[in-house]
Amino acid sequence: MTGVALPGRLVTLVRRKDRPVCVMLPGAGGGLNPYLRLASYLGRHYSVYAVRAAGLLPDEEPEDSVAAMADSAVAALGGLVPDLVFGWSLGGTIGWEVCVRLADRGVRPDLVIVDSSPLARPSTVEADEHIRKVILGGLGPRADEQTVGRVDRTFRAQVAALADYAAVREYAGRVLLLMCPDNDNDFDGRAESVRRWRELAPDLRDGTLDADHFAVFEPEHLDQLTDEIGGFLGHDRAEVAT
Fold first, then answer.
1. Listed residue (123, 200, 218) closest to 164, CA to CA
2. What is the pTM of this model?
3. What are 174-210's pLDDT values in tens digits?
4. Distance CA 206, CA 8 (A)
5. pLDDT tens digits along 125-143
6. N or C terminus of the chain: which is more exposed, having fewer CB within 10 Å?
7. How far apart are CA 155 and CA 30, in angstroms?
8. CA quadruple 223, 227, 229, 234: dihedral, nearest 10
9. What is the C-alpha separation between 94 and 100, in angstroms, rounded?
């Protein structure tokens, strides 16, 4: 289904008339809840949309490659032309590939990548199970078995896709790369990832966040994230809606 947009993939988070478009790509598991506070901040300057992961609705199959995820994300945009693409974790990897594809069409949106790697992700049972538990735990204690099963299957397909992926094409648009601390065990090989991002992105600005991988959107860390993004985009600092 490469390049085919499944129904309902494009989700409106903040709609502003006559504002430029921001597109957000979710991390592994496909959940959008971590993005809602940041979307509120970005909504001061953009109409904000997200492209949810395939596989989260009944009768949907997860995508088995990063290329397929990026192709279908571009297809889901329809006639929307983003000025800004945002992605965290897996979403940053997909965001990179989305921007490469848009550049082929003559469009170079700003790209914000948070704690993502352009390199193949080593997959281990222990690490995968830890991340899986964090993602499924975020569904809450009352999540039904069918939802848990679909998220679990989607996550496993995404992990397999990341193990087979490495970015190879440059992107000449403006890129902001924000990485979490090296002592955060949820992500190995950050230094190597940063070096490779710098090779691929000639117009790259990079920095480090104080939060661990799964905490970057928490209220106590959100000001730092929005300050970094606002500075990159040339926006004044604004208080984030709660």
1. 123
2. 0.90
3. 999 999 998 766 677 899 999 999 999 999 999 999 9
4. 34
5. 777 787 888 877 777 778 7
6. C
7. 8
8. 150
9. 10
